[in-house]
Amino acid sequence: MDRSHLIEYYKDMNLYDDIDKNLEVLKTLLKQNSDIIFREFRIGEKKVKAFLICVDGLVDKALINNSIIEPITLETRKLNGNPLNKKSVYESLLNYFITTADIKEEEKFGNVVERILDGDTPVFVDGVDKSIVISTKGWEQRSIAESTTEAVVRGPKEAFVETLRVNTSMLRRRIKNPNFVIESLKIGKYTKTDVAIAYIKDVAKDEVVEEVKKRLNKIDIDGIIDSGYLEEMIEDNPFSPFPQIEHSERPDKIAAELLEGRVAIISDGSPEVLVVPTIFVQFFQSAEDYYERYYISTLFRILRLAAMLMSLTLPSIYVAAVTYHQEMIPSPLAISIAAQREGVPFTTLMEAFLMEFFFEILREAGIRLPMQVGQAVSIVGALVIGQAAVQAGLVSAATVIVVALTGIASFSIPAFNIAITFRLLRFAMLIVGGTLGFFGIIMALMMILAHLASLESFGVPYLSPLAPSNTRELNDVFIRIPWWAKIFRPHKVAGQNVKRQNYSRS
Amino acid sequence: MKKITYTELFSAMLVFELGSAILFVLGISAKQDAWIAMIIATIAAFPLMYMYVTLFKKYDANLPQILEGVFGKIVGKALSAIYAIYFLYIAARVTRDFDELNISTIYRQTPISAISIAILIVVLYFLLFDISVTIKSAHMVLPVFVFLAAMQFLGIFTINGISIKKLFPVFGNGFMPVIKAAFPHILTFPFGELITFMMIFPEIYLKKDLNKYCMALVAVTGLWLTINTVEILSALGVAETARANFPFYQLVLSMKFGSFRNLDPFYAVEIVIGGVIKITVFAYAAIKTIQSIFNLKEYKFLLIPVGTIIYALSILIADSYPLHILIGLKLTTVYIHVPLQIIIPLIVLILSFIKKPQKQQ
C-alpha cells in the first residue's frame, strides 16, 4: 500500500498497547522524512520502553530536552525501590514528570500524526494504548516589526507576523475579556492551515459569525498559503472589481474593528488579517484617523476622498474637457493647452492613455526591482514622464501633469487594494471620457454607483451608512467626531448591542 | 426582499421629479406668472399624491394588482396593458428629451441614436439589479443636485441684467392664463408622473409614515421648481425663456465664476443623472406591469425587449424637436396624462370605497 492509503487506513485506528507495533506503524507513516526525529529511551528500574517523535525545526529543542527528556530519564531514577508497572509509569509521567503546561492525551494514529506535523511531541510508553502529546511548537519566525504597508505617524507601530499564535496574542493583549473568542479550524487538504475566527461575543452579530463559519467550512481546497485565498473564496460577489473584505496588518486596527462588532479571520502564514463585514468607506479610513486630533483627521479624510475622485476621473475629465468641452476651460488656459499640443502627433485620448500606461509600467517595475537598482527606475521614470518626453514632442506638458497628479492621488488612498481597483477603472473611464465626453463619464460613474449600491458584505450593504443612510453614523465617514461623542457602534454591523460608552463630558 | 427606506424613497422621488422638469420653465404660457402657476399646481398636487398613497395603502399592492382587484380580471388586465404602454411611452419621451438636449448643446455631430443607446445601456444595467439599487443610487446623487442648485443660486447674480422686476406685473394677464397653465399642464408633469411610484411602493420596508414623506416630497419639489422658475424668469425674461429650447441650460450658460464660464457640462451632468434615474423608474414600472399582466415569475428576460422598444420609440415618436415638444404640450397632456394619472385612479378610488377591498395575498 502506498502512503496516502496507509494514512487513510490508520487515520481512525486506535493506538496499540504494544509499543513496538506503534513505533513500526509510525515509522512507516513517516518514513523517508529526514526531518523527523525518533528518540527511544527507557524509564525507571524496570526499563519500560518509551519513545518520542518530533519534527526537527518545528519544535523548541530546549523545551524537549529540559522538560521532557531530562525529567523522564534522570528524575525517574529516583523512583528506586519503588518499582513501577507500565501503567503507573504512564500515569506518573502524565502527572509528575513532564514539566510543561500544555499536555493532551491522544488515542488515534491520525491525530498523533497531525500533532507531530504541527510541531508537537507525543510520548509513547509500552503497555498503554494512549500517548501523551506535549505542545512543543517553536520555530524560527520573523520577529514583530513595524508595519510597512500601513505606516502611521502616531499610534502603535507593531504589525502582525506570519505565526497565528503570535497574532492572536497581540489581539488578546488588547482585548482582555473572556467574551473575546478565538475559534479555530483547519483548512486545506495538504497544508492543514490553521485559521482562526476572532470576535467579541456580545458585540458581534451572531448571524455574521455563523455566516463566516459556514462559508469557511464550505472551502475544500488543497492548500491556503495566504489570507488572500480565503478572501476570494468567501466574498459575496466574486466578480466585482471592488474588494469586499478589508485586510490589515495592524493589530490596533483589527482590535478597534472587533470592538465595532466585526469578525476577524486570521490565517496562519499570513500577516494580513481579514475583517468582515466591510463597507466601502472603511477603505478611506486610516488607523491614525482615530489617534490624531479629530479636526486633522477630518481634513485628511476629505483630502483622501478628493484623492479618490481624482484617481478615478482626473485623466478622463481632462481628456473630455480638451476634446469636447473646450469652452468651459478658462480661455488663457485653453489657449496655452492648445499651444502645447501643437507639435504633438497623438489625440489627447491616445496621449493620456499612453502616459497612464507608462506610468503603470514604471510603478510595477518599482515594486519588482531589487533595491540596488531601484534608483534606475526613478531616473528613467523622470525622463519618461517628464520634461524630456515633452521636449521630444511626444506628449504635451498638461498631460504629463495630469498623469503625475493622478498617480500621486492614487497613492494617497490608505488601502492598496481599493487603489488598484480605481486604477483599473481609470482606464475604462479614460476611454468613455475620450469617446463620449462628460456625458460618457457620468454614464460610467452611474454604472459604478449602481454596482456599488448592489454589493453587500456579509449582510451589510456596501454603501452603508450613505445608502441606506443613517444620519447617526455619518459622523464617522467624511468627518470623525471626537471619541467622547462617539457613543454608538455602527448599527448595521453591530446589530443590537450598539452602545459603546456613556457620555462622560457633562 | 423589501429594502427601500423612506429617506431613500424621498430622495429618489425628488431626483425623479426634478430629472426632466428642471429643464423647462413649466407653464410659460402664463408668461411672468409661471411661478404662480407652479405654486397652484403644487397645492393641487397634494390631494393627487394623497390619492395614490391611499390607493396603495388600501390594497397594499402595485398598480396592475389594484386594477385587477377593482375591475376584475379582464378589464383590469386591459387597463394594465394601457399603463404598460404608457410607461414605455413616457420612458421614450424622457429619453428623447435628453437626446435632444445633448445633441443640441454639446454633441452636435453625434447621431441621436448613439445618445439613446448610451442612456439605455446604463438604464438596463440598473435594471439588472433589484430596484432598491436604483433608489439607493438616486439617494447617493441627491447631494450633487443640492450642490449644483446652491451654485446656481450664487451664480445667477453674475448674469447681466438679472432683475426681479422681470416678474412684474403679477397677474398682468389676469387669472385665467395662470390657472390654465397649472391645470392640467403642470399638475400632470411633473407631479402626475408620481403615479409610477405606485409600482415601487410595495418594495418599501415600512409603510406607516409613507403619507408624511410623500406630502413633504410634493412640497419640496414644488418649492424647488418654483425657485428654479423664478431664477430663470428673472435672469432671462419672459421672451427669451419662451424662445429657448432649454431655458435652464440657457441660464447656467450665462453664469460665470471669475474666469470659469460656460459651466453647462456640469449641469448637463445633473440633468443626465436625473434622466437616467427617471427612465429607469419608468422602464421598471413598465416591466413590472408586464410581469403582472402575464403572471411571470422572472422579469429579467424582459430587459432587452423593453430596452429595444424604448430605444425605437425614442427615435420614432417625433420627427423633430419642435414637434416632440408640441406633442408633449398639446396631445400627451390632455389625452394621455389626464386620463391615466387623474381620471382612472379617481375612478378606482371611488369604486374601492363602494366595493369592500379584498387584500391580495
From TrEMBL, chain A:
Keywords attached to this entry: Membrane, Transmembrane, Transmembrane helix
Domain of life: Bacteria
TM stretches of this protein: 302-324, 400-420, 427-453
Pfam families (UniProt xref): GerA
UniProt keyword Membrane present: yes
PANTHER family reported in the protein's UniProt record: LEUCINE ZIPPER PROTEIN 4, SPORE GERMINATION PROTEIN
Annotated family: Belongs to the GerABKA family.
Protein name per Swiss-Prot or TrEMBL: Spore germination protein KA
Automatic annotation (TrEMBL), chain B:
Cellular compartments annotated: Membrane
Keywords linked to the UniProt accession: Germination, Membrane, Transmembrane, Transmembrane helix, Transport
Transmembrane intervals: 9-28, 34-53, 74-92, 112-129, 141-162, 182-201, 213-239, 266-287, 299-318, 334-354
Keyword ATP-binding in annotation: no
Coiled coil among keywords: no
One Pfam family from the record: Spore_permease
Membrane protein topology class: Multi-pass membrane protein
Protein family according to the UniProt entry: Belongs to the amino acid-polyamine-organocation (APC) superfamily. Spore germination protein (SGP) (TC 2.A.3.9) family.
NCBIfam families: 2A0309 (TIGR00912)
Name the UniProt record assigns to this protein: Spore germination protein KB
Taxonomic source organism: Thermoanaerobacterium butyriciformans
